[in-house]
Amino acid sequence: MAEKVFASLPQVERGVSKVIGGDPKGNSFLYTNGKCVILRNIDALAQGLCHSDTKGARMGSGPLGKAALGGWVLDPAVADIYTEHAHQVVVAKYAPSGFYVASGDVSGKLRIWDTTQKEHLLKYEYQPFAGKIKDIAWTEDSKRIAVVGEGREKFGAVFLWDSGSSVGEITGHNKVINSVDIKQTRPYRLVTGSDDNCAAFFEGPPFKFKFTIGGPEWAVVLRKLSQRSGQHGDNMAHVQAAALQKRALLGISAQCVLKQDPAEAVPMWHESSKLGGPLEVISGPLLSFWPMPKSHDALPIAQSSCRLHSELESWFVPCGPQATPALCTLKDHSRFVNCVRFSPDGNRFATASADGQIFIYDGKTGEKVCALGGSKAHDGGIYAISWSPDSTHLLSASGDKSSKIWDVSANSVVSTFPMGSTVLDQQLGCLWQKDHLLSISLSGYINYLDKNNPSKPLRVIKGHSKSIQCLTVHRNGSKAGSTLLLNCALHYWDSETGENDSFSGKGHTNQVCRMTVDESGRLVSCSMDDTVRYTSLTLRDYSGQGVVKLDVQPKCVAVGPGGYAVVVCIGQGTTDPQAAQDAGSCYDLRAAQGLCLTPTPPRAAGLPFRDSVQHRPSPPSRLVSVVTATTVSAHEKCFSLDNPSYEPEVVALHPGGDTVAVGGTDGNVHIYSILGTTLRDEGKLLEAKGPVTDVAYSHDGAFLAVSDASKVVTVFSVTDDYAESNVFYGHHAKVMCLAWSPDNEHFASGGMDMMVYVWTLSDPETRVKIQDAHRLHHVSSLAWLDEHTLVTTSHDASVKEWTITY
């Protein structure tokens, strides 16, 4: 069991609302990232990590282990991750009972799983529709579930949680439904928000469509003349925008008010059974619908004939001196409705839209109460809203890079939280949980808002929201770890306190492939942006200093004593560079592959070639590997080894600083000696069982471990002239990474089989197996904090700390 889990941040998308759910007891919250649902303790995150003993704070019973049940240390490193979805999870919500969570993914699968056991057993699984599930709502008794999203045949469904039997039908929208909520008091009501700029109101159960709100609609006083009965009657018809396709609105003196396309099969109007009540919109094929000439006391709209009625119905707009005003416009939202939420007491519900408006409605009848802030609540689109527990205030999150607290009764802003000025500061989600106010930024950061000081959050939870590619450990007298993201963002974690932060400044502009810490305590990283960077771990700030620009793409970097860094480079082949230079020209070596040996740069790096050299694209030819040693201060090329007969993949430097081991796709490890500023091929090949995936020297330099794509780890004895010492079998898939324990007696390996093994050097049969270390995600990197503490990272964007007992 993992001692600590540093969970990923929410996975967010610009312009898309991020739903985060709260535990009914108010102790935790959950969100999604990739195929994972992450559950975190809300109190511990707000207060910061407790510095007391956390050995008992393992993931166990309860949604967040025993830490969530009281009596245990509240530790934000105690997170729970559910990883049973086969596709990307979009939304997850607690049942009001707190015993189950419903989570939906992009394929339309809804999984209902247990929160009281660490195994999170699956209770039920349904497929309400084929397409992305965007929101979920439960009734207060945890017996009914509503789901909405991007279905192909329908956009929503509501059913019993234990049988899947339908308890209503979600209709009234002609575009994707973004949000749904259910009134938590009886009588039940359900509301939805859609990309058709409307919200729909339902009564139930069984839930039936009542009317559409929020979108444009026309209130028309109509006079109906039945050709069959000759009876007249005036009614107020709310002609919904969703019911009138290809409509045209003209003035009262025009030839027609509404215009329909006769070829369209659209909903028809039918007189309500309630005398004088509004006309209902019913479905039926349209047989004929055309404008009629104007008369002296009425403006005919149209005549219609429907299969549901044998009579011909004529509709007129009264326009005489005594007539009621014929046409008025009632308009609520004009853009996508992103979020709808009922207040906890059920008396009101709110709708939030991309038009920057928030409307408040009566929770029982659906009648509009007010528009928060008048014409606009925010200057940008609103992506999420959340009610206070007492139903008196509302928290909103907007793309204008701010969040606001509203006093709903007074229709006024209580607090405005400015979150920054960059695009990444846009607010896409929010949650009001007990006394905690949370918002989610486009960066993925979780902000704890301070009502007493709106200008600065109480705390900002940072971390990873995308796949983690590599990991290294910086020891400065205490346990500390530094991890790196695929999105080029560096994050530094303190393994004892759990505090983390990102490196400031402009860093790598592409994926970082590998990083390590040199003897001076600087972070050395190589990236697909063709650079190697030296970054201070004290300042944790990128700068123009310490950047080595390469002509080829680096793939792996290793450092050793003496200030040298060896970089494996890879790319498309070129012609022989020496021959090209002898001919008086220089081919562009950006497409070469090989190794670069560079001393630690004292200042900004330059290109190893003179600026005056004219580069031109190389013609297609064989692959070339280049080993270059560059004195950056003098911009001199110290050494190059052209055209080795293999493709370098990984590299390691001996702790003594005199030997370099390079693993290749040819299934061999090639040994080089460092002689001053040059490398000498010793002609020694260490044979692996397949293409080499990683190499690592033990800390005392006595052994070299080699992993390969054939699921094997081979250890060679350096002191015995690299004789094969032991072979370790156990992985069921490609081994991805290696790391030696500080005791030099054990090493760890991680593979694509999601397993981590801790091996004993002297006995391959003595091993510690960590099954499903990162379930459904292979391990990307390993590092040791001490002899009994191992850290792993994966493409699930989480960092896990394991206590190893031999």
UniProtKB/TrEMBL annotation:
Alphabetically ordered keywords of this record: Repeat, WD repeat
Gene Ontology terms for molecular function: actin filament binding
WD repeat extents: 82-123, 330-371, 375-416, 728-769
One GO location term (cellular component): cortical actin cytoskeleton
One example of a Gene Ontology biological process annotation: actin filament depolymerization
Keyword Nucleotidyltransferase applies: no
Similarity comment: family membership: Belongs to the WD repeat AIP1 family.
Protein name per UniProt: WD repeat-containing protein 1
